[in-house]
Amino acid sequence: MRKACHWVRNGVPILGVNPDLNCPTEEGMIPDCGSIGALITASTGCEIEYIGKPHFATYDFVWKRTGLVQEEITWIGDRLYTDIAITQGTNSHSILVLSGESSEKDAENSKYHPDLIVTNLEELDQLLKKL
């Protein structure tokens, strides 16, 4: 961290893959890119530019790569502020999976509203098999 902060203070640009604060693992939550970025920002005063979800560059990449239109895209994830937020202001769809960072209560209180909430990926798999 010392070296990273030194480089940033000396003008090296810093990009973050995503602003996720925590990453679920088998042993519990661990700090993710957003937490590490917040530490660097607090130490250096330099803001990190995030390039992953929910930023438009990610959405734009998916459109160009797949050739799909907004209505044909469904984003699936466990984080309201990235995985679900990316769909806001678009005609795409979102599914929140509760097996990670977000809870049902988080979803109720969030400014980002998924189209569907599932408990885990197994439940999602069963729903998709019925289609």
List the uncertain runs. none
User: What is the makeup of the main sheet?
Assistant: 3 strands, parallel
Question: Count of DSSP helices?
Answer: 6
Helix proportion range: 25-40%
Counted up, domains total 2
Structural class, from helix and strand content? Answer: alpha/beta
For the record, the CATH architecture of the largest domain stands as 3-Layer(aba) Sandwich
User: Which fold name fills CATH's third level, the topology of the largest domain?
Assistant: Rossmann fold
Order of helices and strands: HEEEHEHEHEHEH
DSSP strand content:
15-25%
> CATH superfamily name of the largest domain?
HAD superfamily/HAD-like
Kindly report the spatial arrangement of strands forming the biggest sheet.
5-6-7
Distance separating the two termini: 48 Å
Radius of gyration: 17 Å
SS elements, strand count: 7
Which CATH class of the largest domain applies here? Answer: Alpha Beta
List the helices and strands and how they pair.
Elements: H1 2-9, E1 15-16, E2 22-25, E3 28-31, H2 33-44, E4 49-50, H3 56-66, E5 74-77, H4 80-84, E6 93-97, H5 104-109, E7 116-118, H6 121-129
Parallel strand pairs: 1-4, 5-6, 6-7
Antiparallel strand pairs: 2-3
What does this entry look like structurally?
This protein is of the alpha/beta class and 131 residues long. It has 2 domains: 2-50, HAD superfamily/HAD-like (Rossmann fold, 3-Layer(aba) Sandwich), CATH 3.40.50.1000; 69-129, HAD superfamily/HAD-like (Rossmann fold, 3-Layer(aba) Sandwich), CATH 3.40.50. 39% of the residues lie in helices and 18% in strands. It has helices at residues 2-9, 33-44, 56-66, 80-84, 104-109, 121-129; strands spanning 15-16, 22-25, 28-31, 49-50, 74-77, 93-97, 116-118. The strands form 3 sheets. Strands 5-6-7 form a 3-stranded parallel sheet.
